[in-house]
Specification:
mainly alpha
């Protein structure tokens, strides 16, 4: 394994030792006092390979003996190294209870040694102890303020805790130290996404993918950002590219753990680890070795297919996905990945069958069910798509894309009132989605829900004061609603005039005429309606009866009421 030089023994003063004792005796006593395997719970090793179990048992025995024999400086250093090796093996093999106790002892022995604080951070991260992880990150950064890996892990923990300012500061500092760090830039993209800064998030994720395309997990976050920005089609494509390969970070201490078990670790685990680290060629070779011994293992076929997809060997990937399904017809992930692969090569009908099967196998996977709904809609099965979407939003009321797609389908089916309910949910879930707010206001207007329409449009105007379409629709609502409590002629004039000043289009001229009429300024209403008629004759060669009727209405000093339920 190689010695882990702890770097603490020679710093312990021995000036007060008795003259006849060697100057290292106090160091040895300190190691024996602070490092004790009696306090470290002996973990169950039943889940490990026989060779791994034998090695760990032998190493524990060796550490016990080394501590018992530590009487000199050299023996104490050896004992500490052997104890540290054993502790890191516990951490590597995820024997967390034992690792926690021995790491605590090593920190007491060497409080200024950065590595033990960092390994405690990894331990808390692995066990999901968010608060203790943040404390360890703070302690590690106090010892090594510019350690990039710690800064990135600290940022991740801050994001999980909802402290976006602290997360952004950690990632930004990591980028200062290591400007090429894709992991730090990825973290800043996550912060931007959580803050609703969609354009910044998309730019950050695209930059990460440009520098580290093998980190396919970024596709998920990019897809979520695009979805939040209303780019539904592109979002679906990005989400489909996520194969859960994480972003690699430069992390020497974490990499050191990999030497524990490389010689004895099962080939399948080594292959999975290699694939997750972006070493797909290595993973493919290991998977093929395993298949040479047993070609009926569906998990090996499936994981080999995923690695082949990463290397763009689509034909071989398809073959192994089919073999995984043949070996295990209920392998949902294999059906799903085969559906995606078939879709990319234009075989959408067969892909849809596998997508149906995947969602049937794992009905709790709402992402698969959402894609099944979209596939049904694309194939013309509107009722099947709608029933699936309705079930998704029942199971998860926060399913943004399901609400969006269901609203669109209901509008197309002539059910605007039901569509408005989903648009309202969508607007609440995506407060920065202008399209959701506008469509909600428009649909409420068109279905005669004028009070609700005004509320939705006022909210949209507050969030997007510069948007011309929102101002125009709100002006028309305030000018023409049949409900007196909703109307406000003077405000309608103000909004409509700002729209006309910005864009004097035909509909905008008409809306200003409507607003003038509601404000009781009928001469102005007639004047603006005449301008609208002039503009219509210029473009169409004549005037519509409806616009002429509006002119006559203003001429007899009558305002207009809800023309056609909206613009």
């Amino acid at each position: 394994m190689g010695a882990l030089l702890l770097g603490f023994l020679l710093t312990t003063a021995a000036a007060q030792a008795a003259p006849q004792e060697p100057p290292t005796t106090d160091d040895a006593r300190r190691v024996r006092a602070l490092l004790s395997l009696d306090a470290v719970p002996e973990p169950s090793l039943d889940h490990l390979d026989p060779e791994q179990r034998e090695q760990l048992a032998a190493d524990r025995t060796a550490a016990t003996g080394a501590l018992a024999d530590a009487a000199t400086d050299e023996q104490a250093q050896h004992a500490a190294n052997v104890f540290g090796d054993l502790c890191l093996q516990y951490l590597h093999y995820e024997l967390h209870a034992a690792a926690a106790v021995c790491l605590a002892q090593l920190r007491l022995l060497a409080p200024n040694d950065f590595q033990w604080t960092y390994y405690e951070l990894l331990l808390h991260d692995a066990t999901g102890n968010l608060e203790r992880g943040r404390l360890s990150a703070r302690a590690a950064l106090a010892l090594s303020p510019n350690d990039t890996a710690t800064l990135i892990r600290s940022g991740d923990l801050h994001i999980d805790a909802g402290d976006l300012d602290a997360a952004a500061a950690a990632y930004a500092r990591a980028l200062e130290v290591r400007p090429e760090s894709a992991a730090a830039r990825f973290g800043l993209g996550r912060v931007a996404l959580d803050r609703g800064e969609i354009a910044q998030a998309v730019a950050a994720f695209e930059e990460v993918l440009a520098s580290q395309p093998e980190g396919s997990v970024v596709h998920h976050h990019l897809g979520m950002a695009l979805r939040a920005g209303g780019e539904t089609t592109r979002a679906r494509a990005e989400l489909a590219r996520n194969l859960q390969v994480p972003i690699a970070i430069v992390d020497p201490l974490r990499d050191r753990l990999r030497i524990y078990g490389v010689k004895t670790e099962a080939r399948f685990d080594r292959a999975v680890r290699a694939a997750r680290s972006g070493r797909n060629d290595e993973a493919i070779a290991l998977y093929r070795e395993l298949l040479a011994e047993d070609d009926g293992d569906p998990e090996v076929h499936f994981n080999l297919a995923r690695a082949l997809i990463e290397t763009a060997d689509q034909a071989a990937a398809e073959d192994h996905l089919r073999q995984a399904i043949e070996a295990n017809p209920s392998h949902g992930a294999a059906h799903f990945n085969l559906a995606l692969l078939l879709g990319r090569t234009g075989r959408t009908a067969e892909g849809a069958l596998h997508l149906e099967r995947a969602a049937d196998i794992d009905p709790e996977n709402l992402q698969w069910r959402l894609m099944r709904a979209q596939a049904r809609a694309d194939a013309g099965n509107a009722s099947g798509a709608r029933s699936e979407l309705e079930e998704i939003v029942r199971l998860d009321p926060g399913a943004i894309e399901a609400h969006r797609l269901l609203a669109a389908m209901l509008l197309e089916a002539g059910e605007p009132a039901r569509a408005a309910d989903h648009l309202e949910a969508l607007a609440a879930l995506t407060p920065d989605d202008l399209r959701a707010h506008f469509n909600l206001g428009l649909t409420r207007f068109q279905t005669g829900q004028f009070t609700a329409a005004r509320q939705a449009l006022e909210t949209a105007l507050e969030r997007f004061p510069g948007d011309l379409a929102v101002r125009h629709l709100l002006a028309r609502l305030l000018a023409t609603s049949p409900e007196a409590a909703v109307r406000d002629g003077e405000r309608a004039v103000e909004l409509a005039r700002s729209v006309v000043d910005e864009q004097p289009a035909l509909d905008h001229l008409e809306t200003l005429a409507m607003a003038m009429a509601e404000a009781g300024r009928f001469e102005d209403a007639v004047s603006w309606q005449q301008r609208a008629l002039d503009r219509e004759r210029e473009s169409a060669g004549g005037n519509s009866p409806q616009r002429l009727d509006r002119l006559r209405l203003y001429q007899v000093r009558q305002p207009l009421r809800a023309p056609g339920g909206g613009p």
